[in-house]
Each structure stands twice: as C-alpha cells, then as structure tokens.
C-alpha cells in the first residue's frame, strides 16, 4: 500500500512515457482501484510511434496505422490528456498545460499539480542554421513525415515522367539525405528500393535516371554497427548507385539547389534532414538540473539528480551507464535503452511510493541491426556481424518482438506475409494531406500547393 494518495504526472507518450505508464498501471493496479493513486499522461499525440518501423512505412511495407499504438486502448487505467506541457515548476509541483481546447476557450495555459513527475518528452530534430533548410527540408521523426515523404517521392517521379523540361526532370529525380545514422540510412535504403521497383511502371524512367545522395559530415555511417559493418554499408549503397559522401556537409539548399561543402551543387526538390536529435525544449523550461548537452541529470535509479519526486529517462535524460568503463559515460539515447529504462522507472516509482529500496538501471548495449531495403541489412549483435538477408531477417524478427501489443505484432506480421505474396503498392495518396482541396476548388477557392515543394509551404 502506498503511503498516501499519489498523483503521478507522465509527460510524454513515446517509448518511456507509454511503457512507464503501462508498468505503473500494472504495479499499482490495486492502488488505482482504491483511488490511492492516479496516473495522468500528457502527450501531443494520442498514440506512440514505433519509430524503427518508419522506413518500412515510408516504403509501403507496413500500413501507417500499424506503426502507431493507441494510448487510450493500451493505458486504460490512466487519464490521457492530449496537449503539451509548456513549463514545469517542480518546487511547487506544478506543470503549465496547453490542450487542444485551450485556444478555443481563450483562457490560456492551465496549471496541473502533481506529486510524482515522470519527464519523458523525448527529442526533436537537431537542425543547423543552413540557408533554405527551414523552407525545403523534410524531417523523418514522425509517421506523418514518413508517409508525406513517400507520397512526395512518388509525386516527384510523376512530375519527372510528365515534364518535357530536362532541368525539372533532373531536379525531381534527385534525392538528398543528410545524416548517416539509422534514420537517414534506413530511410534512404527503403525509399530507394521502393522507387527502383516503382520505376518499372513508368515508361520513361529508369532506376539509373534517379540520383540518391547521402551526405555525412563524419568519416563513416552507422557507427552503432561498428566500423567494419559501416564500411560494408557504404560499399553496398554505392553498389546500388547511391552517392555516399563522407566528410561532407550541406551548406545551403536555397532555390531548390543543394550546395555541399565539397563544392558540389545538385538541383533537387527533396532534401531529407536526419542529422541527429536534441532534447525536447521543455527540459530547459523547468527548474530541474541539466548537463552540458541540455539533458536532465539523472541517477542510476532514474531519479533526477538532486530533485525529489522527479524521474526521467529516454532521449531527454542523461542516465549514467554503470556497465561502461568510463566513469562519466551515459546511456545512448535510443529505443533499446528507453524501453528497458521505462520498466525500471515504473518499478522504482512503485517502490518509492511503498517505501521500498530502488533498483539500479544497468544494461550493457548488445548491438544494433539496420535495414537497407528489402532483403538487405547489416547487424552487429553480441559481437557477431551479419549482412545481407540474415541481417535483414534479424532486423524484422527483433523489431517484431519489440513492437508493443499482440494486436500490432499480428497486424505487422500479416502485412509482411501479404507483401511477400503480392507485388508492392506504389500508390501516392498525397491528396490525404489536403482533404478539402477538391471542395475548396469547387467552391471557388485556391488549391493548396505541396508543402515539400513550395518555398512558403501551406497548411
């Protein structure tokens, strides 16, 4: 039994937020029934996105709705609030909250009090002040961006197929990806594979007509899979006629021209930015301690260092890695740690409420797997190195085991099975981004333009 009624506020509905709330509603099942505890989850979206599946969703191998997990269904013992926490005054145990109704009501953000705080807002894309990036860049962190990018790539192929202007055709068929980490390499590999397949249905587009360019500022890509597998990945991508440029940066993308630091210029209508992430801005709007990189200082028990009743994990938290040889090492901001941290975090909050000793988070990184397209991949797991089909198969097996709920596992497995029996879907549903466009035009309005192509975008 908990010492007193506990109001637990979970900020964020990603890996850490969802799994922590899920663990808490199991650990505190009786307390929740008796009204001795309540769990409130504040999240901008009513679902958790399983990000490792975004590249396959972009390639059409998985339906977008099967990449997300509905929070209200999974967290039936919690109160789900769709909104954003703007600031936190932990000294007063108060969070400032904006919801979808806040603007309609005109009353401004409202205070939300709590007893225990779980801060797991995740991360956002780490961008640089590159000219033209805000106008033309495309991110790859959400399911909306993944599907929008898929539609955009197919639309560019449609433009190239129908234009008589060679400059427009060349720009439409040039795709620049910035960032050689998991997101960039997997997105590029899956989309190039999809576009290569789709080209067979265009009478005047050949796979070799398309230019796929990967720009990476460091000396290698996919550092998580090791140097050897990183070199293999570069060789594999170049064998597929993908231009991999190491020690290279994007200097500008104004006027639909990608200007690289090596002097190259590529007219293009597609610049995908996947060059890293940074902690969510919310952590800077709190009175909690941060490290030099803007992440929350945490203890190995996942409490915020020096703050009672505050907990954190995931991308926005600097959690000490007790398994590392270096004394100041912290765990990497990835899903492998986030899911495991959430389990310990949920258990420790229950322990704290019951006056029990806390557990220490300790997990030695076991390795990584990456998909490079259908039947292609690389892996470095438990010291073993795999490439090609075995690595791709391991990638699918691993992530199928990790995606939450049996419902999603079954649906994803069914889609993979069907995709093995039938041909790929190459349909672009770009009109979904502007569902009122046809009616607006019929009613005398102006049709919206493609936000990825128009310099000023549209909404």
TrEMBL record:
Domain (FAD/NAD(P)-binding) ranges: 7-342
The protein's name in its UniProt record: NAD(P)/FAD-dependent oxidoreductase
Keyword vocabulary terms for this entry: FAD, Flavoprotein, NAD, Oxidoreductase
Family: Belongs to the NADH dehydrogenase family.
Residue ranges, annotated region (Disordered): 440-459
UniProt xrefs under Pfam families: Pyr_redox_2 (PF07992)
InterPro entries linked: FAD/NAD-bd_sf, FAD/NAD-binding_dom, NDH-2
Range of residues in the leader sequence: none
């Amino acid at each position: 039994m908990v010492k007193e009624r506990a109001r637990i506020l979970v900020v964020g509905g990603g890996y850490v937020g969802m799994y922590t709330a899920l663990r808490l509603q199991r650990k505190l099942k009786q307390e929740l029934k008796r009204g001795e505890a309540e769990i409130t989850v504040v999240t901008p979206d009513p679902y958790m996105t399983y990000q490792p599946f975004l590249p396959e969703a972009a390639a059409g191998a998985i339906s977008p709705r099967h990449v997300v997990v509905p929070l209200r269904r999974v967290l039936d013992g919690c109160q789900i609030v769709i909104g954003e926490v703007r600031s936190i005054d932990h000294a007063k145990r108060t969070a400032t909250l904006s919801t979808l109704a806040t603007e309609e009501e005109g009353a401004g953000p409202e205070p939300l009090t709590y007893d225990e705080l779980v801060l797991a807002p995740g991360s956002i894309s780490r961008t640089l002040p590159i000219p033209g990036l805000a106008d033309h860049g495309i991110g790859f962190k959400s399911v909306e961006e993944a599907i929008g990018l898929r539609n955009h790539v197919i639309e560019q192929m449609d433009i190239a197929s129908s234009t008589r202007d060679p400059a427009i055709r060349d720009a439409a068929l040039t795709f620049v990806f910035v960032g050689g980490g998991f997101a960039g390499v997997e997105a590029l590999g899956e989309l190039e594979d999809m576009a290569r397949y789709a080209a067979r249905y265009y009478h005047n587009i050949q796979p070799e007509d398309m230019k796929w360019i990967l720009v990476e500022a460091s000396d290698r890509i996919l550092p998580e899979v090791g140097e050897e597998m990183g070199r293999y990945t570069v060789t594999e991508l170049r064998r597929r006629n993908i231009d991999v440029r190491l020690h290279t940066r994007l200097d500008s993308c104004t006027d639909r021209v990608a200007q690289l630091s090596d002097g190259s210029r590529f007219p293009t209508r597609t610049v995908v930015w996947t060059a890293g992430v940074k902690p969510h801005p919310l952590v800077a709007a709190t009175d909690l301690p941060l490290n030099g990189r803007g992440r929350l200082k945490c203890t190995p028990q996942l409490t915020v260092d020096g703050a009672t009743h505050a907990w954190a994990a995931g991308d926005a938290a600097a959690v000490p890695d007790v398994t590392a040889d270096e004394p100041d090492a912290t765990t990497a901001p990835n899903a492998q740690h986030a899911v495991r941290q959430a389990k310990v975090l949920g258990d420790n909050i229950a322990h704290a409420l019951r006056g029990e000793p806390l557990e220490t988070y300790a997990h030695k990184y076991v390795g990584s797997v990456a998909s490079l397209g259908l039947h292609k991949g690389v892996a470095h797991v438990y010291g073993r190195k795999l490439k090609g089909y075995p690595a791709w198969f391991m990638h699918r097996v691993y992530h199928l085991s990790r995606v939450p709920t049996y419902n999603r596992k079954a649906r994803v497995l069914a889609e993979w099975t069907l995709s093995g029996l039938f041909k790929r879907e190459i349909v672009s549903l770009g009109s979904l981004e502007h569902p009122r466009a046809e009616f607006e035009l019929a009613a005398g309005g102006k049709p919206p333009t493609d936000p990825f192509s128009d310099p000023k975008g549209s909404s």
